[in-house]
Design a protein that fits this description.
Blueprint: E1 8-11, E2 17-20, E3 27-31, E4 39-44, E5 50-54, E6 59-63, E7 69-75, E8 83-88, E9 107-111, E10 116-120, E11 124-129, E12 136-141, E13 147-152, E14 156-161, E15 166-172, E16 177-182, E17 188-193, E18 197-202, E19 208-213, E20 219-224, E21 230-235, E22 239-245, E23 252-259, E24 265-270, E25 276-281, E26 286-290, E27 332-337, E28 343-348, E29 352-357, E30 368-371, E31 377-382, E32 388-393, E33 399-403
Antiparallel strand pairs: 1-2, 2-3, 4-5, 5-6, 6-7, 8-9, 9-10, 10-11, 12-13, 13-14, 14-15, 16-17, 17-18, 18-19, 20-21, 21-22, 22-23, 24-25, 25-26, 27-28, 28-29, 29-30, 31-32, 32-33
Length: 411
């Protein structure tokens, strides 16, 4: 940051603040031990106060024009993460001046946990935006409300309000989460973990209900049957695990497992009558199963007229056109068809979300693409009324909402 006389102020990894003279660009002052560990942010307020934000100590410290501590400082809670960026809110009055809450200027603090805190050194800070802090792979929408649930490698499960853009509830889990699904009634949420354990939460409050573990390997995908009476898990051990769901949805009992894939199961879909499942694996194999017998249906023609309740497998006749020329099979991470079967969305390794008309049985089909993520896109899904498309990012841990303006005429 710069002072009013154009001196440059920097912070280093040892916790020191350095002042560089504008004329000579030489260090004129070093403030050692300003923070414990790295200084990740500096901001000069309009009143001439310097704020510094520490990465390790999570403290915001105020300095006067002589670079002496004013005595005002605040330490963010550990659950918020370290300070990544500080900013002063300006433009709040007719003159565009600093916004003041009665106890000093209002400050925004962005954290390493992808949260944004608002407040002042006098009154403290509150979280106004919550985010995930590691890769996101689990994403599922509520069947009747404008809500969706995410689960990530940061061992957090969050239920979001798509209208207000805030968190309805959040719950910690013991291990990295890979998959999530909301029951067709909207009453429970099931989360699949990297350790093979799955956990059930109440969908309205996030209250823990029960958990179990059968696989011992990552649960890459999971989905309830359309009638809500069964639940299928696709595991990294190449098996599909099938469970029955009790009427009160508090008991989930395993009834069998489907064996036939030669590599990790990555995606699965149920038929509309809840009788069949289709799964795709890491080696680009598409298989069909009878949910009643847990046996593979080996004749593709026997499945030709089956209507699928969802389409998330990136392999199959209706989605041939999603693959660009030269694709190696791993470029497309996620696929989702909307509820009216008029469009299909994909997310890929190149940060792109693409929208196609559905079905797309011909190669190199036309599409529209949007870019907003800073890393690979791991999951996409439409909200229950198809008015929004939700996308989740990998390394950027970002959740983006895209408004669907013309749901019946994409291209």
């Amino acid at each position: 940051t710069f002072t009013s006389n154009h001196d440059l102020i920097t912070g280093d990894s040892s916790g020191s603040i350095l002042v560089w003279s504008s004329g000579s660009m030489r260090i004129s002052l070093i403030i050692k031990n300003a923070h414990e560990g790295s200084i990740l942010s500096l901001v000069m307020l309009e009143d001439g106060t310097l704020l510094s934000g520490g990465g390790k100590d999570r403290r915001i410290v105020a300095w006067d024009s002589s670079y002496q501590r004013t005595g005002d400082e605040y330490e963010l809670p550990e659950t918020s993460g370290a300070i990544r960026m500080l900013a002063e809110i300006t433009g709040g009055d007719e003159d565009g001046g600093t916004v003041v809450d009665g106890d000093g200027p209002v400050i925004l603090a962005g954290t390493t946990f992808n949260s944004i805190m608002e407040g002042s050194l006098a009154t403290g800070f509150r979280e106004i935006i919550k985010g995930h802090s590691d890769e996101l792979w689990g994403l599922s929408v509520h069947p009747m409300q404008d809500r969706f649930v995410t689960a990530g490698f940061d061992k957090m499960v969050c239920c979001w309000d798509a209208t207000n853009h805030d968190v309805v509830w959040s719950a910690p889990v013991a291990d990295e989460a890979l998959s999530v699904a909301v029951h067709p009634t909207g009453d429970i949420v099931v989360v699949g973990l990297k350790t093979g354990r799955w956990i059930i939460f109440d969908a309205s409050s996030g209250t823990y209900i029960t958990s179990n573990c059968d696989s011992g390997e990552p649960l890459n995908c999971l989905r309830f049957s359309p009638d809500g009476r069964m639940l299928a898990f696709g595991s990294h051990d190449s098996l599909v695990y099938l469970y029955t769901v009790s009427d009160d949805m508090k008991t989930i009992a395993r009834v069998g497992k489907c064996s036939g894939h030669s590599s990790a199961v990555k995606h699965l879909d149920w038929s509309t009558d809840s009788q069949y499942i289709q799964t795709s694996s890491a080696d680009y194999e598409l298989l069909f199963w009878s949910a009643k017998t847990c046996k593979q249906v080996t004749s593709p023609t026997a499945m030709r007229d089956v209507i699928w309740a969802t389409y998330t497998c990136p392999i199959g006749f209706p989605v041939i056109g999603i693959w660009p020329e030269g694709a190696d099979g791993s470029d497309v991470n996620t696929v989702c068809r909307n509820s009216t079967s008029s469009m299909l969305a994909t997310g890929d390794d190149f940060r792109k979300v693409k929208i196609f008309k559905y079905p797309l049985p011909q190669s190199r089909s036309q599409f529209r693409e949007v870019v907003g993520h800073g890393s690979h896109v791991t999951a996409v899904t439409f909200t229950q009324d198809d008015t929004l498309l939700i996308s989740a990012g990998g390394k950027d841990a970002a959740i983006l909402q895209w408004q669907v303006l013309q749901p019946d005429s994409v291209i």
